[in-house]
Design brief:
Two copies of one chain form a homodimer. By secondary structure, chain A is of the alpha/beta class. In chain A, 45% of the residues lie in helices and 17% in strands. In chain A, the strands form three sheets. In chain A, strands 3-2-1-4-14-13-5 form a seven-stranded mixed sheet, with helices on both faces. In chain A, helix 9 packs antiparallel against helix 11. The longest helix of chain A is centred in the middle third of the chain and has 17 residues. Chain A starts with a strand and ends in a 6-residue tail after the last helix. Chains A and B meet through helix 8, helix 9, helix 10 and helix 11 of A and helix 8, helix 9, helix 10 and helix 11 of B.
C-alpha cells in the first residue's frame, strides 16, 4: 500500500477540494491510502458530506496549525511545528508515509520538504518541475520558481533530475533536454546560459539537444528536434509558467467578446481544458529524499486527485532510488 | 513630408511584402514618402506588378548588398557598407530620411542603428520595445532581446524610454510601469530585479506601480493596478515574447483537432488575428537618435504598412525630442 499524506488545509478550496480529491483518488487507485493531514473536526465534517464513499483507505492525521498563504516560508515552518505541512512531511521523514501533496503555501512546502526530507547526496539544490501542456505530450520545465539565481552547474543538476522524472513518471524512454535561451547558437545567452550550454554538452548521461527558444516549449520541439525537458533558472521558469497560466483567460476574454456561442460547445471546452491544465497541474519537487508535490493554490478536486496519482507513481517507479543512484555515480562533468 | 526608408530586401517575403506594404502605407498616409532601399532592378520589377498604384511618394534608393538572416550582425554591418540596412540608416544619419523600417536581420539592424544613429546623451543602452496584444490595450514589454545582461540602472533607462513611447505613440497619458518579477513583494526576485525595484521607486519622473508577475502582462494589470509598460532584461523579454508568439499555433493545433469547423468563422478568425499580432508587429528601437523599427522576419504587407505608420507617428509626435529632453534633464536617481 502506498501512503500519500495530503495537506487537507492548504489551497484556496480546502478542505473540500482536498477531501473530494482524496476520495476520487482511492476510488481510482486500489493500492493507495490517503492520509488527510489537518484539523480533525474540519476534515471529519467534510468527510461526513460523502456518506456513501469508500473510506477504508482514508486516514485522518491531526495537525492543529495552518500555514497561511501570505506567511514567510522559513519562519512559518519554524514557528508552526504542528502545521499540516510540517506534520505531513514529518510522517514521511519518520517512515510512516511515502509521499506528500499540498496546495498550500508553495514556499513553505519547499522549505519544509528540503529541511525535513533532505537532499540526495550529490544534489546541490532541489527543483520544482512543472509540466507544460502542449498539443502533444507535456513538456517538463524546470526550475519553476524555487531557485531564482542558479549556477550553470545547478542547471545541469536540474537537467539530470528532470530527465529521471521524464523517464520514470512521464514514460519518455530517452528524454531529450533543451536549455531555454534566446537563440540556438553556442554564443547566445547570458554568462550562466553559455556556461550551462557547454557543461550540458559534456554531460554524457543526458540526451542534450542544445539551446532552444521560447517558442519551442509549446511546439514540443526546436529546429534540433523533439524536446521533453526544458532547463532554465527559477526566475525565467516562474515568469514563463505564470505567463502561460494567463493565456487561457486571455483566449476566454477574446472569445467571449467575439464568438461567445462557441463556449457552450463541448469540443471547444476541451481546448480550454488543455490550457487550464497549465494552471491546475501539480509540480513535483525533485532532488529531495522523498516525494513532495506542490499544487496550485486554486486546485480543485481533479487536480488534487491527479497529484495523488503522480505521487503514487513516483513511489511505485522507484524514482528516488534512480535519482540516488544517478547522483551517487557522479556523472556530471567536473566544473 | 515624412520620409520613411524601408529595407526592401529584408524579411522572408521581401521584396513583395515590402513593396505592397509601402504602397498600402502611402495610400493611407498622405504625408508619408517611402524610400525603398535595395537592388534597383528587383524593386522596379516588384513595383511593375502594381501598375495602377500611386507611385508619386515612392522613391527607390540603390543598395547593392544584402545582409542575410544568418550573418553575424556586427561583422556584416562592417563588411557590407552598401547593404540595404546600412544605406537606409545612412540616409537618416545624413538628414535625407526621417525613419528606417526593416524586417531583415534583427541583430544587424540593431548594430547599424546604434552605430550610425548614436544614442541620446544620458541613454546607456538602446532597447527594443515590443507591444504585446491583450484583450484590451497592448502592453509594451522592453527589452525584447537586444540587451541580454542588464544592470538595474539600465532597466530604469528602459522604463523611461518605454514611458515616453507609450505616451507619445500609444496615447497613454500617464503610462504605468511594472517590473517583471516572480512576486510583488519588495524582497522578490534576483539581485538585479531587487535593486531595479528600489531604483524605480525612487524615479519620480516614472509612474511606477511595483513588481508584477508573468500572468499580469496579458491581463494588462496586476493586483496593484493597470500596466502599460513592463520592464525586464532582454533575456527574459525575448523568451516570453517568443513563447507568446507560439501560443496562436498551439491554439490552432488544438482547435484543428477538436473543433475544426469553427476555424471558418470570421469571428473566430478575429481571435487569431489578435494573437497573430504578437508574431507580426513591429518593434521600435528606443534610445537611438533617430527612428528605427524592427519587424519580424515573417512580416507580410500588413505588418510592413503598420510599421511605416508607427514610424511616421514617432517622427510626427516628436518622440526623439521628448526623449532627448527627458534624459538631458537627468531625472534618474543617482545609482
Amino acid at each position: 500500500m502506498i501512503r500519500v499524506a495530503l495537506d487537507a488545509m492548504g489551497g484556496d478550496h480546502a478542505p473540500q477540494a482536498e477531501v473530494e480529491g482524496a476520495l476520487a483518488a482511492i476510488a481510482l487507485l486500489p493500492n493507495v491510502l490517503v492520509q488527510l493531514v489537518g484539523k480533525v473536526d474540519v476534515i471529519a465534517a467534510e468527510l461526513a458530506r460523502h456518506p456513501g464513499a469508500d473510506r477504508s483507505r482514508v486516514e485522518i492525521i491531526p495537525a492543529t496549525e495552518v500555514i497561511g498563504m501570505g506567511e514567510r516560508p522559513l519562519s512559518a515552518v519554524r514557528k508552526k511545528p504542528n502545521s499540516s505541512v510540517v506534520v505531513g512531511l514529518g510522517l514521511q521523514k519518520a517512515g510512516a508515509s511515502d509521499a506528500f501533496v499540498s496546495a498550500g503555501n508553495t514556499g513553505a512546502v519547499l522549505a519544509a520538504s528540503t529541511v525535513l526530507l533532505g537532499l540526495h547526496p550529490g544534489v546541490e539544490r532541489a527543483t520544482v518541475a512543472t509540466p507544460f501542456p502542449t498539443a502533444d505530450l507535456p513538456v517538463l520545465v524546470l526550475d519553476g520558481g524555487a531557485n531564482v539565481d542558479c549556477s550553470a552547474k545547478e542547471l545541469v543538476g536540474f537537467a539530470r533530475l528532470g530527465s529521471a522524472y521524464a523517464r520514470d513518471v512521464m514514460g519518455r524512454e530517452r528524454p531529450l533536454v533543451g536549455l531555454l535561451n534566446i537563440g540556438e547558437e553556442d554564443e547566445k545567452g547570458n554568462a550562466v546560459s553559455r556556461e550551462a550550454h557547454e557543461l550540458l554538452k559534456q554531460t554524457t548521461s543526458l540526451n542534450y539537444i542544445g539551446n532552444i527558444e521560447g517558442r519551442d516549449i509549446l511546439a514540443g520541439h526546436s529546429k534540433l528536434g523533439h524536446v521533453d525537458v526544458v532547463v532554465t533558472d527559477g526566475f525565467v521558469g516562474n515568469i514563463v509558467l505564470k505567463f502561460y497560466e494567463s493565456v487561457a483567460r486571455l483566449i476566454l476574454r477574446l472569445v467571449k467578446r467575439t464568438a461567445p456561442d462557441i463556449l457552450q460547445r463541448a469540443d471547444v471546452q476541451e481546448v480550454f481544458r488543455v490550457l487550464d491544465y497549465a494552471e491546475y497541474g501539480g509540480a513535483p519537487l525533485l532532488g529531495v529524499r522523498g516525494v513532495s508535490i506542490i499544487c496550485h493554490g486554486s486546485s480543485g478536486s481533479a487536480a488534487i486527485k491527479n497529484a495523488i496519482r503522480v505521487a503514487a507513481q513516483m513511489v511505485e517507479t522507484g524514482l528516488n532510488q534512480h535519482i540516488a543512484a544517478e547522483f551517487a555515480a557522479g556523472s556530471a562533468p567536473a566544473a
